[in-house]
């Protein structure tokens, strides 16, 4: 049931046109018909939500040979969403990355240190891109604590 796809058909209109009179009267529209691609019924003029929705399982389709966009974002079940891989770091990796990021000043823009950055990433076991993202995500947490103590000390002097 979980991986099944469903098709929907909108049947008779259930809108109560006599609600303001305290009564019940429908317009007799038997099935929702699309009016120019909109959500208004061509037969009765009501919105599609007023029509009774009937769901039924879709017929299995053969997968397309090539998805638009290279097929990214589609998981094995074909539901259209792919869960992002989340990096997990050991405490040792975190300590080393924190120390190295503070040494770099929380920026990877120094071209003269490219070799050293590559060596560090290889020694820690993360790619340069993952280290860059980790630095971006943690720069405010670490630098704010040291900067706030520096600001307090400069205010008290």
Level of helix content? 25-40%
Q: How far from one another are the termini?
A: 69 Å
Order of helices and strands: EEHHH
Oligomer: single chain
Backbone structural class: alpha+beta
DSSP helix count?
3
- Strand order of the biggest β-sheet: 1-2
How can the largest sheet be summarized?
Answer: 2 strands, antiparallel
Strand content: 5-15%
Instruction: Summarize model confidence as the mean pLDDT.
Output: 77
Sum up the overall morphology in one term. rod-shaped
Query: Low-confidence stretches at least 5 residues in length (pLDDT < 50)?
Result: 65-75, 147-154
Count of DSSP E strands? 2
Radius of gyration: 30 Å
Walkthrough of the structure:
With 157 residues, this protein is of the alpha+beta class. Helix content is 34%, strand content 10%. It is built from 3 helices and 2 strands, in the order ββααα. The protein has helices at residues 91-104, 114-124, 128-156; strands at 6-13, 51-57. The protein has a two-stranded antiparallel ribbon with strand order 1-2. It is rod-shaped.
């Amino acid at each position: 049931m979980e991986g099944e796809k469903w098709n929907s058909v909108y049947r008779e209109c259930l809108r109560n046109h006599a609600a303001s009179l305290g009564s019940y009267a429908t317009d007799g529209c038997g099935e929702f018909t699309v009016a120019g691609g909109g959500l208004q019924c061509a037969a009765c003029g009501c919105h599609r939500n007023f029509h009774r929705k009937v769901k039924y399982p879709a017929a299995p389709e053969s997968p397309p040979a090539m998805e638009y966009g290279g097929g990214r974002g589609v998981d094995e079940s074909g539901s259209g969403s792919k869960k992002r891989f989340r990096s997990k770091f050991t405490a040792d990796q975190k300590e080393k990355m924190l120390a190295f990021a503070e040494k770099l000043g929380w920026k990877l823009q120094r071209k003269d240190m490219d070799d050293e950055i590559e060596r560090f990433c290889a020694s820690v076991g993360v790619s340069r891109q993952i280290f860059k993202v980790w630095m971006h995500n943690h720069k405010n947490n670490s630098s704010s604590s040291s900067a706030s103590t520096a600001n307090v000390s400069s205010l008290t002097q």
